[in-house]
Amino acid sequence: MAYAQPHPRLSVVSNSSHSSIDHLSPTTSSTRFSLPAVPTPQAVAKPAANRPNIYDRPLNKTRNAEVSASAFAFLFSEIVQYTQKRVSGINDLERQLNTLGYRIGTRVLELMVWRSEGSSKTPKRELKLLSVLMLIHTQVWKAVFGKAADAIEQSVENADEYMIIDNDPAIERHISVPKDMSQLSCSSFTAGIVEAVLDGLTFPARVTAHNTPITQFPNRTTILIKLEKSVLEREELLKK
Amino acid sequence: MSHHLFLLSPSDTPLYSLTHQSTKPVPTVTSPLASNLPTWSTSAFAGTLTALSGASSATQTTSGGAVRVGGGQDRHVIQMIANAGLDVIEDVMRKENTMYLKSVDKFNEWTVSAFITPGNMKFVLLHEGKNDEGIRAFLMEVWELYVKTMVNPFHTAHTAIRSGVFDSRVRGSARKYL
């Protein structure tokens, strides 16, 4: 039932403004001398009518909508500052950012696939690890950052490790990490998104972010995916 | 003819369930009991099932005198069939790359169809009779409604869906397609 109500903060704002208009306006004298606290049914219904229910909104409306980069940079900087005040150490901070990203990732996955497959007669799911990794490299990156990631590689040493490389991650463009925190990669947020997508598609993995600067791209970041054993075993079985 | 829909989270927590009585006429499927029963139910679980159905009011005795198990509309029997179907669903979803898995399991008159969303949510539908196209369209609409629910920041993977609007929308498309 919570969805039927408008956003609590908005409803407070609009209700109070509505009742204050009631008090000031000479035409509505009915409430003038009575108790003002009780909102009339119309006053409650009004904001609901202005603001459509989430089930009334088409999901494709914001498909090509873009978010202002400066607004996002500001929001993300606040997120990092807020988180930093509540953690002890870099590892903890990265874990928190990862958790926040995870919440985004579950939604990105479902919405993104709905937008591409929702109108199809036989919507498909990805079953193969490689196609899932390609999906993350291109589709997810496009949905979240507006462009595909720059590279995807398999680790030479470990068969269960894959790396997605972004030469200039959008979320770090306006972040300069202090020297004493040089290990910190704010792309842990992105790692969380990737982890959620992999989890959702039943390819559980541990995903971390690392700074791997090179001379042309000082911001270059590697998202390291370490897949769980069960995933690789299943891949083996599927090959047969 | 009735339909039972369950929305299960990736950790198999039921988030929403719906029972829908269809008004549309159905071509009745009259197949003998024996052929409808999966093989395992006659062996390992038969005792449990008889006991289960014995407790329910809707146990029907067929003309042959055999007890028809699970044939009632009892909630716990329905839930058990839906849960039992999960095993088959999880097997099939490893091999099939479609989201809509039609008629994955059968139990007496019930057919189990499922829909797996990319986020691994499972929509399990118990139905009688055959209506592939209608069920597909219904489940697609449920998916859209579910996506709208889950992009809400206040929804988590384990919160039950209690929205009245969601409920009425699902009922609406059930009336339309089932």
TrEMBL record, chain A:
Coiled coil: none annotated. Residues 1-35 are annotated as: Disordered. GO terms for biological process: endoplasmic reticulum to Golgi vesicle-mediated transport. It comes from the Eukaryota. Residues 10-25 have a biased composition (Low complexity). Pfam families: TRAPP. InterPro entries: NO_sig/Golgi_transp_ligand-bd, TRAPP-I_su5, TRAPP_component. Keywords: Endoplasmic reticulum, ER-Golgi transport, Golgi apparatus, Transport. One of its GO terms (cellular component) is TRAPPII protein complex. It is found in: Endoplasmic reticulum; Golgi apparatus, cis-Golgi network. Gene3D superfamilies: Trafficking protein particle complex subunit 3. Belongs to the TRAPP small subunits family. BET3 subfamily. Part of the multisubunit TRAPP (transport protein particle) complex. PANTHER family: 41-2 PROTEIN ANTIGEN-RELATED, TRAFFICKING PROTEIN PARTICLE COMPLEX SUBUNIT 5. This is Trafficking protein particle complex subunit. It comes from Hypholoma sublateritium (strain FD-334 SS-4).
UniProtKB/TrEMBL annotation, chain B:
CDD domains: TRAPPC2_sedlin (cd14825). GO terms for cellular component: cytoplasm. InterPro entries: Longin-like_dom_sf, Sedlin. One of its GO terms (biological process) is endoplasmic reticulum to Golgi vesicle-mediated transport. It comes from the Eukaryota. This is Trafficking protein particle complex subunit. It comes from Hypholoma sublateritium (strain FD-334 SS-4).
